[in-house]
TrEMBL record:
Protein name per the record: Malate dehydrogenase 1B, NAD (soluble)
GO BP term (any one): malate metabolic process
Organism listed in the record: Seriola lalandi dorsalis
The UniProt record lists the keyword Glycoprotein: no
Keyword Oxidoreductase assigned: yes
UniProt xrefs under InterPro entries: Lactate_DH/Glyco_Ohase_4_C (IPR015955), Malate_DH_type2 (IPR010945), NAD(P)-bd_dom_sf (IPR036291)
GO MF terms held by the record: malate dehydrogenase activity; oxidoreductase activity, acting on the CH-OH group of donors, NAD or NADP as acceptor
Amino acid sequence: MAKFVLAGKTDCPLYAKAELLADALKRSLPNFRAHKISILPDDWKEWLEATCKRNGWKHKKSPLVWRELVDQGGKGMLLGGFSDFLEHCQDYYNITSDMPTDIMLSVAAENLETKMNLILEEQHRASLFKPLHIWISSALSPTCHLLIPNLLSAEVFPHVDAISLHLLDLEGGEEQLQGLKIEMENLGLPLLHQVSIHTDLDQAFQEAGVILLLDEWWPDDSDAENESEQERKNRKVKEVSDHYREYGKLIDTRANKEVKVIVSGDSFVNLRCSLLVDNARSIDSDQFVTMATQLENEAKAIMAKKLRVKASDITDLIVWGNISGSFYIDLQRAKVFNYDGAIKGPAFFSQSLLKIFHDRFVTITIKKNKKIIVLKWDCFWLLAGYYNLPDGIVLSVPVTFTEGKWSVLFDVTVGDELKEKLQLSASELRRVCQVTKILRDVVS
């Protein structure tokens, strides 16, 4: 069985005549099948060239008619234009067309009006459908595969009907991103509306409602072996600064003004977040946050091993400071469940870690030879404002998330010693910012 495909400009009289001839054949022949493709006049030339190139045809005018062998598969067989279609119908079906010119023109005008109305209806439906646009940078990071299924859920976004996911990776290849896209689409996540991939910044952060900036890989130059440690660090700082200044400007001009931006990873996270805030001036700084969860989880795991409990049994640790440099884990609110100590209780019973770790300072080593200083608090006092820290510096402090915004938590105690440590962390970050400014001035 054959199916005829009729394509033409919506305002083409000959396309209108071919349509009516196909309708007459369908009424007369129960097994006759026809599919119509109506193309706007402005789009016709490009569509025709692409279709002919794909099928190896040569055709210049509207309409374009071909046959598809439904039962046999394979590509379609070109018939040609209206006169070719008419001749075929006369020879095979003994049916012709005697449509007067005025009716032919009337049908063509009606086709165009119908097509325009359909386009307007589709545009109206599209305007009512507003998915949440989520952008993830460094999308080829292994983290992304684990993140997306947990992120795109009603538990995380209870008031969202649909999500458009945008995967951005400047270092990866389009083929790899395409593979990730297909993998995510195959998960069948209920909230996922569509997935798009991006290997450059041409469309980056358009209409973004949520932006997740994962840890990026900063490749070494070919002559990196000849660099000193300080030169290598300065180069890395400059690379990070250049990237994140541009990201901040793009977020400022393209993202939704209520966008939530999360910076993740363990390299230059404070600096990266600070640069975004500095360059996205039209967006409230409360909408930017960098996560210290990785350090918190590593500290939990190490302390859990010491206490012979699971990492999930330890809660309410606080991370202070520069998590890419000098940082501190605060136990003032920390609790442990299921600890096999002198006092035991049911599953919901917890004990304060301050009563278990008796040393004032406990130093534990985590990956990359970093040190975490775990503080045991004795006497404390509350700081006014943001703990008297300088403006424009991004440090890890305890926060809450309410009504769509991050807020600094002041209901914690801060001793003189921690206050000094935080000032040192702030000075450390200010020096880094000064280095980035000097490097930028030298290059420019």
